[in-house]
Design brief:
The structure holds two protein chains of two kinds.
Chain A: H1 2-8, H2 12-39
Chain B: E1 35-41, H1 52-60, E2 77-83, H2 94-145, E3 175-181, E4 186-192, E5 204-205, E6 216-221, E7 240-244, E8 248-260, E9 282-290, E10 297-310
Parallel strand pairs in B: 4-5, 6-9
Antiparallel strand pairs in B: 1-2, 3-4, 3-7, 5-6, 7-8, 8-10, 9-10
The chains are: A mainly alpha, B alpha+beta.
Chain lengths: 55, 321
Amino acid sequence: MYGWIWSKLPFGLPGKIIGSLALVAGGLALLWYLVFPAVEPLLPFDDVQVGNPTP
Amino acid sequence: MRPTAAPDEPSSNDATAVIPKITTDAPRAGDALREETMVIRVATADTAVIDARALRSALGSPPTAPPPATPRWAGETMVLRIRSLGSHAREMPVLRKTARTTGELMITFGLILLLFAAYEVWGKAAIVADHQQDLNAQLDQQWATDDPTVGLPTIPGAGTPTAAPPALPPPSGSGIGRLYLPRLDKHWVVVEGVAPADIKYAPGHYPGTAMPGQVGNFSVAGHRISAIFWDLDQMRPGDAVVVETQSSWFVYRVTESVVVLPTSVEVVAPVPGHPGQQATQAMLTLTTCNPKFNNYQRLVVHAQLDHTLARDSGPPPELNE
């Protein structure tokens, strides 16, 4: 998969390096700002309430 | 392709050595990198240049005509090792491709999970800070426009009634004041309510418990995340807990910290630990999950009201402790 991506990036070796960095940065941003905020409420890490807390 | 046994001395392009018939291995489909060994026994002393194109065509087709070679002297056995191109020039078998891609996908997924763990710590901290900024602005605006003489609404039954007439509790999610923990050098806008949606970005006030400064138990719950109550275990008896409302500054002092079960709801009773008793003092209680990466316990910090200041007199010095 990564070999195929590498071979498809244009502009020779510098182009491939820059293209790889751009793809990685784009992927990270996509995950950090879009995917993770969307998925996070669906995960059970914030379920801390125990019934009615009022005395 | 270049034969490794290239000649050092210049040779004539026209001369061609007569070389006996040789056999080579036919290219096998599926080999990523293959070596071919051609053993050539030189018959004569004539020199010739090895034509790369001739070699290639010789390898591609059934080797009927042996390629010309460059010997140094008659009788030498020359071994040509011809390396074919790497994997990109040839079809990889499907199984190997699938295995490689599966491995890459699994490693990628693992890295994504690590990134998610980092997001849970730093990403959410940034989001909480953003929301706190919004809440701060909203609270300032709310306090600027509301009539300051009305003071806080009282909660019927939470403690002794104050001079102001009983009013409805504030809506869930709306800011009711600021909480400062000078020991942790942190402060937040506290919102009303302790539902998951309420405490997602701010500490939440337990509905039905006293309001700041009132006799009773002003109880606040917060997530054990780096942006909220992560370091609550650092609170020591005597530490200041300052609450800011529209009309006043309330300075509480920590009395004790306890670890209890999640079901120990008596910690937010008007008299902490004694449900049903009539309150006589103004207390404050902070609750969060315990241990740090788990939630099968609760860390509870109790504090008692020390003194009250009017908001106009400015921030109390305890904020700088």
